[in-house]
Amino acid sequence: MYRENEIMDGIADEKARREADETGDLIINMGPQHPATHGVLHLVVTLNGETIKKVEPHLGYIHRSIEKMCESLTYRQFIYVTSRMDYLSAHINNHACALCVEKGLQLEIPERAQVIRVLMDELTRIASHELWWGAMAMDLGAFTPFFHAFRERETINDIMEETCGARLTMNYMVPGGVMADIHPNFQKRVKDFLILYKRKIKEYDELVTGNIIFQNRMKGVGYLSAEDAISYGCTGPTARGSGVSCDIRKLYPYEVYNKLSFDEILETEGDSFARYMVRLREMNESIKIIEQLIDNIPEGDFQAKTKAVLKLPKGEFYTRVETARGELGVYIVSEGGMTPYRIKFRSPGFSNLSALDHMARGSKLGDLVAMMGTLDLVIPDIDR
Amino acid sequence: MFIINYLKEVFGAVKSLATGLRRTMYYFTHHKEIITQQYPDNRETLNFPERFKGEVVMPHDENNEHRCTGCTACELACPNGSLKVITQFNVTAEGKKKKAIDKLVYHLELCTMCNLCIVACPSDAIKMAQTFEHSVYDRSELTKILNKPGSKIMEGVE
């Protein structure tokens, strides 16, 4: 009961409360049930007037002990759980796990499977960024962009539904390749989507990017320098908005990424608008990758031959991939049995959230929502 | 100078608002581009792709026969324990004992539609159905027995 009261008060320790009483600061709870936190994120904000003095994220509301659960599941079974971490890039999470198991087994993946995987990853990235774009504009008070973003995202979801059988938690990647071959309609539908996307992306700039109210709320807000981005461990578009080159697809290429031509998007301003532009431009890069691959899916098997029971040799295996939010690392410790001894996920959301306190200090409470929007937080990814 | 800048800002803001509003007005007048589906009313016309993972079912043919041998491969493949195979021994005409399923219990409330049981099944006895409206009034209704009463295994399936 004691702990519950503590959370109800929103103050972690007595000391902070006493300090606040002395200085006349105001401590408010943002969340866990706040529409702008997109989940059960609980921020304890210390305010002086309307100026933020401290932001303290309280985690654990959606902790499902996924890492512990994975220890009791076999190497085929544990992949489905990871779709529930970062549910917006479920494919890429599954991809990271499948890669790690394959590294342990030293499996050669057929090229067709690699290309299908990369195609799915990039489609997921676009879908994720589109949802982020709509949700972030909605946080700032613009409701229309949400529907525009979901309209295009729906097309991707339909493609996923047809090929993978589900819209969000697909479980399509298995150790050795993909679960099923692509649907006969897949290529045609992706090409239709590319045409639709190129027609509609102009609306995005028209609706939000060029809007002066939006720009005033984003420019110069939530500044994060390159040094801070590195020291807080930020990855993905959050760090690339500060000019830190950290795209895993470029730096440590996996699958067929080293054969593709695409740019790593970098912005140097380091404010919310820079992070916004990185994500928006990244969608175009994903489109470029899809265009290169969609007509060149090689013939062959979609899955390598694997044993019925997968057993990883004794040792430690680590792989990393670039999700829509940043670097996802999967670390497996194997004792040689059917199940992993320990699994650790290095999720991008957790590190990106840790920079929020640093960004928010000194700015106004209203800007906190804009900062959180550009960090693109997915709470189940932070808590796991 | 201050006033000019101020007015520039005001008109710039109005202009950028109008740009966004023009897009809204475009969709207001172009009804064909609206893709909203009226979900509960369009149930008859809803089409699901054949791979859509709704729930696990066991297809039976017209003689009430299925293809399940009771090998428990699906039970072992399932990460959540949503499938449970209960086997029995049938005595054949020659007096031999033959293993067959008594019940294949399926817990829909535990299932995450990961498709691993379908992939694991060596005799294609189970498949994913395209149903998706799983709400019921009581939780016990979600525990299903996949094989129909009185059904038996198809000839030639081992």
Shape of chain B: elongated
Query: H/E order of the elements of chain B?
Result: HEEHEEHEEE
Largest chain interface and its two residue counts? Answer: A-B, 30 and 26 residues
- Please, how many helices of chain B? 3
Integer-rounded radius of gyration of chain A: 21 Å
Structural class of chain B: alpha+beta
CATH fold-level topology of the largest domain in chain B: Alpha-Beta Plaits
**Extended strand count of chain B:** 7
* Most strands sheet of chain B: 3 strands, antiparallel
| Low-pLDDT runs of chain A | none
Distance between the termini of chain A: 25 Å
Overall pLDDT score of chain A: 85
> How many beta-strand runs of chain A?
8
Helix content of chain A: 40-55%
* CATH class category of the largest domain in chain B: Alpha Beta
Percent strand of chain A equals 5-15%
Biggest sheet strand order of chain A reads 1-2-3
* Count of the separate structural domains of chain B: 2
As a whole number of angstroms, the C-alpha radius of gyration of chain B is 28 Å
List keywords for this structure.
heterodimer, A: 384 residues, mainly alpha, three-stranded antiparallel β-sheet, 17 helices, 8 strands, globular, B: 158 residues, alpha+beta, Alpha-Beta Plaits, 2 domains, two-stranded antiparallel ribbon, 3 helices, 24% helix, 21% strand
Structure description:
The complex is a heterodimer of chains A (384) and B (158). Chain A is mainly α. Chain A is built from 17 helices and eight strands. A three-stranded antiparallel β-sheet of chain A has the order 1-2-3. In chain A, strands 6-7-8 form a three-stranded antiparallel β-sheet. A two-stranded antiparallel sheet of chain A has the order 4-5. In chain A, a hairpin with a 7-residue loop joins strand 7 and strand 8. In chain A, helix 6 runs antiparallel to helix 16. Chain A is globular, with a radius of gyration of 21 Å. Chain B is α+β, with helices and mostly antiparallel strands and 158 residues long. Chain B has two domains: 32 residues; 97 residues, Alpha-Beta Plaits (2-Layer Sandwich), CATH 3.30.70. Chain B is 24% helix and 21% strand. Chain B has three helices and seven strands; from the N terminus they run αββαββαβββ. In chain B, the strands form three sheets. Chain B has a three-stranded antiparallel β-sheet, with no helix packed on it. In chain B, strands 1-5 form a two-stranded antiparallel ribbon. The chains are: A mainly alpha (384), B alpha+beta (158).
